[in-house]
Recover the amino acids of this structure.
């Protein structure tokens, strides 16, 4: 299917039966809308607002390498990847893209591609090797030089405080289910703001908090590899407290600090128009998309559970609402793919649903006991090599939903991207013709432009990723970069998608056909 037909197809489906009648705010108004609504002011192209922040994103463990240099402490990802059998191909992030040493090259690529924002994360164990106590000056010096180099290149540093590399020493003290980590995290945030806050103004405490708490403590797919649903609930509550505490610590140490988020979100659509599937979709949204947003904005948990919110299991204490509640300056979230959700209550009824009734937790594609939802990623759109469905329309629906539900906040898209395995087509490594990635971004960004035209206050878009990098449990078997990395010699080759994205950043104009 060519791109145009695919887009029309996705719009038709998106506006069709999956959504009609749903109570979720992803439902369509009943008045008929054109199936392929005009996306643009001028035919064939979209203009982004002046000053729109085009950016690229990475995360410390995925790109830095230098895992034990300059006083850095061991992280849970170091421990996990050094354990046999956890990662495809036995890969580790020991060297990764060696960005710790090669960052001037990477920042030069950002500059060459006319980027205005670089979203990177700081490795907590570089700053505090055991997670608490005095700061490691060498770690601070590294990020200080790093930030200066970005600013000299005219690029806004967007700093994520935590992209999953917890100090192993803190895990040994109980990890995120231990409520004390909220205070330690706030101390760390204060150190960063004190040392970098004269230059960094944009901060996000946590990358994808649902994922690292659920996959790390609920299902054990990620480090520390614990699989206990109660631990997930506790970890998530600590992180909600930590988000609030970090917000205050950043603001206290830096008057210029603005604080937002980097949540992972997937627009959720009910499988059928039934009341049960629509309610399940609301619960899915509450658990997967806004479990760390509703707590910040309103100081309360969203209605994610069938029955009462399990406050006791979470370790919730009186007054926690006031710790969690903070006026985020903007809301950041990622978009990769969508979910179709159905009620899974039957599967959990003893005697009725078989094995699910005894399972403790879910994965993103499975069924979840406490929310009693089943979620699948459909395969109507083409799949990336990374296995995710390409569904451009999803970003429009998600951005509009969050805009409506949270009173039209300033939004940053903190990540979006696709895994494709294209490699240089000659030995000299001249070009990487990754045309599918160009189509992915072109179609998605047309949908984002449409959301902006319809009033969403989106000010930034960060493509994942600046460079191919360590893709967690998949090791180096996936390539999400707009720049190719040859891991044998660390040579970077900007892919065709990177060149395309660089032109877009310079012109602010998206041509739908090129
Ligand atoms: C709704 C939000 C609401 C939240 C908490 C969500 O499903 O869409 O508007 O704030 O639940 O109840
Ligand atoms: C994560 C990245 C990851 C990317 C691609 C995002 O959700 O934040 O760390 O590499 O997805 O899977």
């Amino acid at each position: 299917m060519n791109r145009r037909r695919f887009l029309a197809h996705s719009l038709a489906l998106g506006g069709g039966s999956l959504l009609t009648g749903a109570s979720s705010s992803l439902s369509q108004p009943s008045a008929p809308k054109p199936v392929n609504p005009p996306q643009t002011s001028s035919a064939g192209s979209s203009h982004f607002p002046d000053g729109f922040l085009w950016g690229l994103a990475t995360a410390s463990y995925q790109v830095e390498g230098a895992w034990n240099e300059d006083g850095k402490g061991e992280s849970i990802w170091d421990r996990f990847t050094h354990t046999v059998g956890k990662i495809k191909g036995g890969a580790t992030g020991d060297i990764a893209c060696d960005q710790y040493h090669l960052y001037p090259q990477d920042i030069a690529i950002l500059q060459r591609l006319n980027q205005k924002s670089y979203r990177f994360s700081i490795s907590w164990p570089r700053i505090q090797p055991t997670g608490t106590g005095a700061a490691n000056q060498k770690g601070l010096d590294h990020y200080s030089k790093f930030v200066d180099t970005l600013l000299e290149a005219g690029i806004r540093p967007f700093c994520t405080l935590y992209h999953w590399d917890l100090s192993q020493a803190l895990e040994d003290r109980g990890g995120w289910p231990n409520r004390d980590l909220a205070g330690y995290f706030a101390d760390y945030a204060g150190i960063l703001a004190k040392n970098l806050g004269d230059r960094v103004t944009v901060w996000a405490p946590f990358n994808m908090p649902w994922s690292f708490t659920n996959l790390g403590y609920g299902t054990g797919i990620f480090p520390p590899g614990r699989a206990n649903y109660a631990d997930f609930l506790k970890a998530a509550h600590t992180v909600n407290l930590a988000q609030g505490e970090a917000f205050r610590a950043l603001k206290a140490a830096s008057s210029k600090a603005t604080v937002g988020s980097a949540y992972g979100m997937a627009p959720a659509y009910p499988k059928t128009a039934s009341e049960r599937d629509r309610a399940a979709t609301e619960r899915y949204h509450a658990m997967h998309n806004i479990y760390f947003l509703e707590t910040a904005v309103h100081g309360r948990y969203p209605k994610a559970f069938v029955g009462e919110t399990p406050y006791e299991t979470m370790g919730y204490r009186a007054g926690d609402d006031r710790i969690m509640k903070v006026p985020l300056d903007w809301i950041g979230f990622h978009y990769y793919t969508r979910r179709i959700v159905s009620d899974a209550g039957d599967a959990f009824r003893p005697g009725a649903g078989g094995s699910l009734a005894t399972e403790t937790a879910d994965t993103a594609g499975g069924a979840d006991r406490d929310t009693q939802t089943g979620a699948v990623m459909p395969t109507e759109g083409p799949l990336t090599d990374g296995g995710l469905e390409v569904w451009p329309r999803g970003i429009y629906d998600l951005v509009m939903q969050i805009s409506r539900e949270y009173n039209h906040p300033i939004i940053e898209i903190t990540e979006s991207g696709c895994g494709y395995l294209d490699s240089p087509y000659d030995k000299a490594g001249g070009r990487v013709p990754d045309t599918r990635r160009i189509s992915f971004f072109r179609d998605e960004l047309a949908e984002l432009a449409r959301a902006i035209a319809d009033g969403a206050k989106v000010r930034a878009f960060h493509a994942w990723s600046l460079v191919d990098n360590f893709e967690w449990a998949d090791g180096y078997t996936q390539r999400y970069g707009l720049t190719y990395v040859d891991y044998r010699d660390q040579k970077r080759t900007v892919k065709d998608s990177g060149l395309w994205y660089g032109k877009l950043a310079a012109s602010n104009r998206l041509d739908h056909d090129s």
Summary: Residues 229-253 form the longest helix (25 residues). Residues 59, 62, 207-208, 264, 334, 415, 464, 471, 480 surround beta-D-glucopyranose (ligand 2) (CB under 6 Å). The CA atoms of residues 353 and 359 lie 11 Å apart.
